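[job 4471] stage=fold_predict status=RUNNING
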Amino acid sequence: MATSSPQAFPVAVLASGRGSNLAALIDAREAGTLPIKLTLVAGDKADAPALRNAEAHGIPTPEANAEGLRITRMAIYLARGIRLDGLPDYEREKAMIASEVRAIVDRVLEMGDGDAAVGTVRAFAAEQGANPLTVAKDDSRPKPPQAELKPITVKKTVPGASA
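[job 4471] inference complete, writing structure tokens
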């Protein structure tokens, strides 16, 4: 009888300095000996090596999130007044996003028997606590039991391309 892997336990780490304890947790997680999902690493110094180590392993930090918001704000400021409507690449990307979002919404409604709130709760529960709308950089998050979920199929089409 095959044994199933244990569900990853969510862990947030408060680090200072080099982060040797954080490094040990990351090593154990990557070796498969510690079933944890590192959900956040925060520190008392913005330039702590522990925070850079976390970011290098795809673990969220408040500093990285803040930097992402600053960059997004700057990009929005710089893009004001630029019109993309009608540009082929923009229209193709917009159609692809609409198709992918529709597939996700349809699946959530299906899982909730027509109720978006129930479907959202079931989708998150089926993903064993992970956000079902994201993909981990190292794809280390636990996979839901296949018998309980139907896969989402998204057909990507490029306007003007032959099938």
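[job 4471] summary: The helical segments are 20-31, 49-56, 62-79, 88-111, 116-126.
[job 4471] exit 0
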